[in-house]
Each structure stands twice: as C-alpha cells, then as structure tokens.
Amino acid sequence: MSQRGRGSSSSKTYDEIREGICSFNIILNERSLIAPVFRPFRKNTNRIGLNDEEKLLSLDRQVIDLHYLYIQHKSRVNPSDSEFKSLFTNEKFSFELAAEFALKEWKCGHKATESLKLSDSIQEELSILRSRVIADRYRYVEKKISEIEIDLNNLCDTPSSRLKPESVPLRTEEYRCLKYARGSIKEAVRFFTLRGNLPEVDERGQAACVKRFQARKTWFESRLGHNNWS
After folding, report:
1. Among 128, 149, 183, 202, which one has the highest count of C-beta atoms within 10 angstroms of its own C-beta?
2. Phi-psi region of 70 (alpha: psi -120 to 50; beta: other; left: phi over 0)
3. Residue 230 to residue 59: CA distance in whole angstroms
4. Burial level of 187, CB count in 10 A (0-12/13-18/19+)?
C-alpha cells in the first residue's frame, strides 16, 4: 500500500515497503481505526493481469481483511470450508492459516460470499474480499465525489451562500457517507465512523451525529438538489 500524495513511497517497489505497510495495517485493525476499504492501498496498473508485486499486494490485502474480520466481526463469520473455521474461533489470529486462505485460487467475490459467507454490510468494510457488486458500488460513489465538490465550490461563490471554502472538505465527506449509505442516516453515521471521522462516543454523541446527518441530508437536497441517493 502506498499513500497517495507521498512520492517517496510510490517510487519504491512494494517489496521495499511491504513490512511497514502490513504492520501499519495490522495496527489500524487492532485499534479499530479506518476500515480497510477506506485505506489508500497502492493501485494496480491498467495492464491485463497482475504482475508479481501486484499479486503479492493482493495476497497481503486479503490477509489484512481477514485479520480485520477477526478483530471486528469474528462472531459473525462462519466459513463454509471446515479447514478455515478456526480462523475465527482460535484465541489468537493465525496469519499462517490466513495466508493459506489467501493463496486459494478462488476469486475474491467467491471467497467473500461463498467461502466466508459475509453479509453485504461487512463486505462494504473490506478492501478486497468483496463481491463485484460491492466493489463497483465503491467505485461509483468515488466518481460522484468530484461532481459534488464542483457543486459545493460553486455554491461558495454564490453571494447569498453562507458556505465557506474551508467547509467544503467536510461537506464532501458527509456527502460521501450519505451516498455510500444510499441516504440512510444510520448507515451514513456508520460509514462516517468507518472512515475514521468519529472517535468513540457515548450514546449522546451518537444521537448528536444522527441529528447532524439528518440536517445535512436535508441541506444537500434543498440547496443542491441532490435527491438521488441510490
């Protein structure tokens, strides 16, 4: 994984940064900071098929996803293959067994839906162990973000608008979460949390966040005419 905007890491081979990247992601999993789907992993090239480095990165991302599942959802995962059931029942996570699972020559969608039997909501949190439908939804939402940024910046230039340019990044983030959630307030708060925006809060804090997204959804619909959350 290479963080966008950091040229020094993007110029290095994956093998050179692999140990640090994997360790960093394991720490994020253990601390419940940012779901894997929202982490800036290095992108594959546009060529057909994966080169050796990309294959290695794909395997590592699968192991990172499995570790995340163990930390966050192990009581909700019951693999159909008996050889991998212990991945989520052992007292300690087995990276060796996770690597064996990753090496299975099944498509990631099959691994997610057939082997691990993951719900859609859990797949939405993972970087690679997800169905094509879930992956396509992620790409669709991200493509919409540039459109909302243009609309928000144009609104800032409107004399009657109270929106300030410095508020655009947060409004964009709120829109992104609402779009991922298909307009569901509860799900928008979940995505906001999964993206690392909401630290652990009590029920009062959660209620405040729900009210915030209710108001923001109404704002997007009334001020920008964004009524299609599908």
Report:
1. 128
2. alpha
3. 32
4. middle
Is the pLDDT score of 5 beyond 70? no
DSSP 155-203: HHTSTT----GGGHHHHHHHHHHHHHTTT-HHHHHHHHHHTT-S----H
Phi then psi for 168, rounded to 5 degrees? -60, -45
In angstroms, the CA 45 to CA 105 distance is 21
Find, among 186, 185, 199, the residue nearest to 34 by Cα: 199
pTM of structure: 0.89
The two three-digit tokens of residue 112, written as one number: 């997610």
Tell me the C-alpha distance between 186 and 123, whole Å: 17
Structure tokens at 44: 């594959």
**Interval 174-230: pLDDT, tens:** 999 999 999 999 999 999 999 998 766 678 888 999 999 999 999 999 999 999 999
